[in-house]
Task: structure prediction
Amino acid sequence: MILNELYEKSPESYQDLENDNTQPQMGQLRKTRLTLAQIRKLRQMNDLRKIEHTNKLKYVKAQYAPPAEPAGAPV
Result:
């Protein structure tokens, strides 16, 4: 978990607590099955996380790239 996730509101395609049925209720013995809507939400979450990860990698590469040498630098 990232520290910012504690303070910032999650994007819409992240976990939806109202539709979270992973906690068993009294009398439930079987696991819940994933619906197509839940699978679609999982795909959207995964796609969003991939995009965020690639953006973060671009930022890190730019941050830690070796400094560019000036054009007229003596050798």
